[in-house]
Amino acid sequence: MGLSKHYGTGSAEVVALDDVDFEVISGEFTAIMGPSGSGKSTLMHLMAALDSPTSGSVFIGDTDVASLKDGPLTELRRDRIGFIFQAFNLVPTLSAQENIVLPLAIAGKKVDQEWFDRIVSVLGLGNRLTHKPSELSGGQQQRVACARALMNRPDIVFGDEPTGNLDSTAAAEVLSFLRRSVDEFGQTVVMVTHDALSASYADRQVFLSDGHIIEELRNATQDELLQTMARIYPRHDRLAEAEQSVNGKEPDGSASFVEWKTDSLVGVPSSPHSPSDDVVETDGDGTRGSHPEHAIFRDGSGAPEETELEDNDEFEQTTPRRAILN
Ligand SMILES: Nc1ncnc2c1ncn2[C@@H]1O[C@H](COP(=O)(O)OP(=O)(O)OP(=O)(O)O)[C@@H](O)[C@H]1O
Ligand SMILES: [Mg+2]
Question: What PROSITE patterns does this protein's entry cite (predicted)?
């Protein structure tokens, strides 16, 4: 509630999050979207009790995170929150199974075998549990990391671009697993993503811009998400088009830049419903399937705050623009 986060002071002060009210709905899959530097990670870190706000408060259930001392705060992070990182953070010397139960082993807790078996069956990795991470594909490794995050039945699982390092097939495996964890286990999942296709797996899509929530959708398809992104972030789209017409090629990264880009991994099936021997299928209701392209925001520079433009046309309504294909 009323969450703000400022970094630095004086002229160097950055307002990463500006008086944001946000509630994660239990049992839902929420995607937090927005261009680079819009405050997605900041919001997620505050909600996950990894960082404290400059002002405002974070509640996890009835617990005011700010009221907790170090010990209870560590317990809350361990017992009630699960994390999935962009880099899978698996222990290389342990098998998939050992990695999944590692947090419980560290906490000295007993493994609930029935729960483990359910997670593993949804995970679709039953025959790879004895494999080490190096013997698993990227998507398989990230599914192991997801299973690990779910193992202690956390109230919320947070992922900051959990599919950011994966190709589209592997990303689909992981997103399908997260979807099923919500549908079948009632897990609450919050995922930060640049990517319209990834966000289309979620029940709810929340859009950030310059530290504010500026739009929210429910059950949006990839196309609806792309259109919304083009409408609410027109400056990024226009910049991309201008750069394209000047250079006739991708931006060189010298200017700060966020563009729409269609992932053109050749020959890789990008639909969540693409056949693949161990892709875990989603519920097949059609609302999340049939996405023709894998479109992402792409940060060409890694320098988020230079995205300021001379005109503040963030909220300007424009007709949806095409995603740039190259
Ligand atoms: N530790 C920090 N010190 C100073 N400024 C920071 C710090 N962390 C984030 N910022 C700034 O706060 C703003 C929001 O950052 P944040 O990491 O939340 O963006 P993001 O939406 O997650 O971007 P990305 O998509 O690139 O990960 C940016 O302008 C960023 O430069
Ligand atoms: Mg981030």
Answer: ABC_TRANSPORTER_2
Q: Residue 156, Cα to own-chain centre: how many angstroms?
A: 13
- Which of 92, 214, 97, 209 is CA-nearest to residue 144? 97
DSSP 3-state of 316: coil
Q: Cβ < 6 Å from ligand 1: which residues? A: 7-8, 14, 16, 34, 36-42, 299, 304-305
Kind and range of the H or E run holding 259: strand 258-262
Statement: 3-225 belongs to CATH 3.40.50.970: no
Pocket test for ligand 1, best of 17, 36, 308 (most atoms within 8 A of CB): 36
Which of ligand 1's atoms lies nearest the C-alpha of 194? Answer: 25
Q: What is the reported pLDDT for 274?
A: 37
For CA atoms 138, 140, 143, 145, the dihedral sign is negative
What are the extents of the domains in the chain?
3-225
CB 295 within 8 A of CB 261: yes
Global pTM reads: 0.75
Structure tokens at 252: 């060189």
> Do 120 and 129 form a contact (C-beta atoms < 8 A)?
yes
Confidence at 247, pLDDT banded by 50, 70, 90: low
- Closest-CA residue, ligand 1 atom 24, reads 36
Distance between CA atoms of residues 293 and 264, nearest Å:
8
Residue 1 Cα to ligand 1 midpoint, Å, equals 20
φ, ψ dihedrals at 80, nearest 5°: -115, -5
What's the average model confidence in pLDDT over 115-132? 89
Separation of alpha carbons 204 and 169, rounded Å: 23
